[in-house]
Amino acid sequence: NSTMSYFDTTLIVSTSNALSMLRALDALGPDPAGWTQPRTERTGSGNLLLGTGMLHPQLISWVWLWMPRCLRTGPTGVIRAYKTRLTAPENLKGGDRFVIRIKEGVYEETVRAGFYKTNLVFLGDGMGKTVITGSISTGITRITTYNTATVGILGDGFMASGLTIENTAGPDAHQAVAFRSDSDFSYIENCEFLGNQDTIYVHSLRQLFKSCRIEGNVDFIFGNAAAIFQDCTILVRPRQVKPEKGETNAIAAHGRTDPAQTTGFAFLGCLINGTDDYMKLYHSKPSKHKNYLGRPWKMYSRTVYINCTMESLIAPEGWLPWSGDFALSTLYYGEFGNSGPGANVSSRVPWSRLVPEEHVSTYYVENFLQGDEWITTAS
């Protein structure tokens, strides 16, 4: 709880204020009397200063890691010693990474990596083979959403591959996070995240998820990070105890609180669908089961879907209000080049947008995350 309070009342607010002042100084000059709020995509081309140039859409093929240190774990072994926090070296620099090789097995754990546990790598044997599982939810007295995570990462430079991370709290358990990250320069590929409400909490900073599988129902990708989901499979799960009654689900709930924050969610080349069990329910009574691309958790929520495949479960309106007209004039929800039966934009809500073609590259890894500065690529 103290960590969460520190983020929300100190770091995030202070950083947002500083960003707003710097942008105003650069754009409007040194006299504060003439400063105004930053422009956003809704008012022009503001908040696109995340990089420059039209960059190649083939973003990442694979990541090369220098792995000088490695710890192996087995299903009856070492990870259980990390019930509270990982005992890895602190403040690793540059390309020096601490690799935890997690063998095939099911690990019933609550894993925490603190601020100083930087450059950690979790390397599993594959989705569905190496499974880290928990079941904490806000249904437990005095547990916050932030603290329900099965795996929670704070240290920068976190990487993971070949894992399933899940929260098995049922669909009636309210918020129950599988994975939470505040790690800057975070790269995760070929991982599976399973939950119901609030599966992935991308709380802050820059994060890239590639070729991952994410399942949930209510706001199951949420937070205020600058996060890209590339070539991922996003699946809606059955939600309630009596699913035949129907439900309303939103995939993304982005939490940008200040127009100066260069945060948002970008879904690039993803498949948007439901699990087999959910699609049976959906096809039985399509009018009872409503699914949306996102809804505004905070005032300046920003989410885009680019070159994604959207199946029939996505409602024609596309996007869902949070409450009344909250944030509808300040959010930015955009789509470009999507396909499939759920991608028809003719009936979209009037407060969503088509991303202009000249702005699409803004949401590529090189620009949105400055990925060319911290991700080593190879052809």
UniProtKB/TrEMBL annotation:
Pfam family, one: Pectinesterase
Pathway: Glycan metabolism; pectin degradation; 2-dehydro-3-deoxy-D-gluconate from pectin: step 1/5
One example GO MF annotation: pectinesterase activity
Record keywords: Aspartyl esterase, Cell wall, Cell wall biogenesis/degradation, Hydrolase, Secreted
GO biological process, one term: pectin catabolic process
Residues covered by the Pectinesterase catalytic domain: 94-372
Protein EC: 3.1.1.11
Keyword Secreted among UniProt keywords: yes
Residue ranges the record marks as coiled coil: none
Superkingdom of this protein's organism: Eukaryota
Alphabetical list of PANTHER family matching this protein: PECTINESTERASE (PTHR31707)
Record protein name field: pectinesterase
